[in-house]
Design goal:
- The protein is α+β, with helices and mostly antiparallel strands.
- The chain has a single domain, classed as Alpha-Beta Plaits (2-Layer Sandwich).
- The protein is about 40% helix and about 15% strand.
- The protein has seven helices and four strands.
- The protein has helices at about 10-15, 20-30, 45-50, 60-70, 80-90, 105, 120-130; strands at about 5-10, 35-40, 70-80, 115-120.
- Strands 2-3-1-4 form a four-stranded antiparallel beta sheet.
- The structure holds uridine-5'-diphosphate and magnesium ion.
- Uridine-5'-diphosphate (UDP) binds near residues 63, 111, 112, 114 and 120.
Length: about 140
C-alpha cells in the first residue's frame, strides 16, 4: 500500500526569488498537510550526504554548490498516496518538460535550479524526513 507521507525542500533558488509563500499555497490547496517544517541552510556535508546517490553524476558538484548557497525550507507532508501525488504536483525534473500548472513549470529556471525536491519512493521519503527532522520535530 502506498504510504501517506513525503519529504520536500523548497530549494535556494525559489527562496531567493520569494516563492516560499506561493509554493506553500499550491501544496496546501493540493490537499497536503504539513506535519514538520523548518527554514535552514544545508552545510556542504549535509548536501553531499543527502544527494549521495548522485555522487558519480556529472552535475554533482554543481548540485552541491546550488543546494548550499542559501536557505531552504524543508518539510514532511501528509496525504493519501503522498509520494506519487507530490511528484505529479511538482512536475518533471526539467521544468521545460513539466506539465502546465506544476510547481516546477511555474517557478523553476532549469533542470538544476528546479525550485523543489520531492521524494521518489516511500522508503526515501522516510529516510529523507529522518535526515532533516528529529522525532520531536514531527507532528504525529
Ligand atoms: N540535477 C541537475 N542536473 C541534471 C539532473 C538533476 O542539476 O541533469 C539536479 C536537480 O536539482 C535535481 C537533483 O539534481 O532535482 C536530483 O536529481 P533527480 O534526478 O533525483 O531529480 P528529481 O528527483 O529532483 O526530479
Ligand atoms: Mg530524485
Amino acid at each position: 500500500m502506498a504510504g501517506n507521507r513525503t519529504f520536500t525542500m523548497i530549494k535556494p533558488d525559489a527562496v531567493e526569488n520569494g516563492h516560499i509563500g506561493p509554493i506553500l499555497a499550491k501544496i496546501s490547496s493540493a490537499g497536503f498537510r504539513i506535519v514538520a517544517m523548518k527554514f535552514t541552510q544545508l552545510s556542504r556535508r549535509d548536501a553531499r550526504e543527502f544527494y549521495a546517490i548522485h555522487k558519480d553524476r556529472p552535475f554533482f558538484n554543481e548540485l552541491i554548490q546550488f543546494m548550499t548557497r542559501g536557505p531552504i525550507v524543508s518539510a514532511i507532508l501528509e496525504k493519501d498516496n503522498a509520494v506519487e501525488d507530490f511528484r505529479a504536483l511538482i512536475g518533471s525534473t526539467n521544468p521545460q518538460e513539466a506539465a502546465e500548472g506544476t510547481i516546477r513549470k511555474l517557478y523553476a529556471k532549469d533542470i538544476g535550479e528546479n525550485a523543489v525536491h520531492g521524494s521518489d519512493s516511500d522508503e526515501n521519503a522516510s529516510i529523507e524526513g529522518a535526515f532533516h527532522f528529529s522525532g520531536r520535530e514531527i507532528y504525529s
